[in-house]
C-alpha cells in the first residue's frame, strides 16, 4: 500500500552526517563558489568595458559567464548555509525554485554553447560572410532565444514535477533538488506529466549535440585543408576549449539527470553533481581566458586602468 502522507519539507542529504565534516564541506564549497563568482565577474567586466573585445564570440562568452554565475549561485549558497548550520532542510517552494533555476540555467548554457559552435563554424568555414551572418542583431536574437527557451524549459520541468503532491520519504540523496531524486518521492499521478518533459529535454539536448558535432566536423575538414601549420594550430586552439567545456558539462548533466535514483547512494555517486554545478563556472574562465590572447590583453588593460580610475574617483 502506498504511503499517502503528504510531504511539506525535504531533507538534502549532503555529503556527511558528521558536523565537523559538514563544516569543512561548507567552507570548501564556499571557497569554490567565491572563485567561480569572482573569475566570471572579472570576465564580464573586461568584456563590457573593453571596446577592443567586442567580437560575437566574446558576446556569447559573456553570456556563458553570466549563466555560470547564475548556475553556481542556485545550490551552493544553500548548501553552504545548511552545512555551517547543520540543518539540511529545504521547503517545498525552495526546492521548486531550485529546480526551476537549475534547469533553466543548465538549458541556457547548452543553447549558448551551441551558438558558440555555430559562431566558430561561420568564422572558419564561411569567413567572407562572417560579418554579415554574425551581425549584432543575429547575436542578440540567438542569445535572446536561448534565454527564452531555457526559461520555458525550466517552467515546463518544474510545473510537471510539482503538479501534484509528494508522498513517502522526505530525503533527497543530493545537495540540491534535482529531477531523479524528486521522482523517487513523487506520487504516481505526477509521473504522467514529468516523463514527457524529460523526453523533450533529452531531445533538445541531443539536438544541440548533433548541431555542435555537425559544426565541428565541418570545422575539422576546413582546418585540415589549410596549408599553414600555424593557422591550423590557431584554429584548433580556438575551438578546442569550447569542445572541452561542452563535453564536461553534457557528460555530467546526463549523469545527474538520467541516472536512476537510489535511497542512499555513496558519496562518490554525488561527484557528478559537484562537477556539474561547480566545475563549469570555474573551468570557463580558465580555459577561455588563459588560452586567449585578446582576453589576457584586455585583462591587463583593465588592471592598468584601475589606478587611474581610483585617482579620478577620489
Automatic annotation (TrEMBL):
Its main location: membrane. GO terms for molecular function: G protein-coupled receptor activity; olfactory receptor activity. Residues 39-288 form the G-protein coupled receptors family 1 profile domain. It is found in: Cell membrane. InterPro entries: GPCR_Rhodpsn, GPCR_Rhodpsn_7TM, Olfact_rcpt, Olfactory_GPCR. The keyword Transmembrane helix applies. Belongs to the G-protein coupled receptor 1 family. This is LOW QUALITY PROTEIN: olfactory receptor 14A2. It comes from the Eukaryota. The chain crosses the membrane at residues 26-47, 59-76, 96-118, 138-157, 198-219, 240-258, 270-290. It holds the Pfam family 7tm_4. CDD domains: 7tmA_OR14-like (cd15227). Odorant receptor. GO terms for cellular component: plasma membrane. It is a multi-pass membrane protein. The gene is LOC101702485.
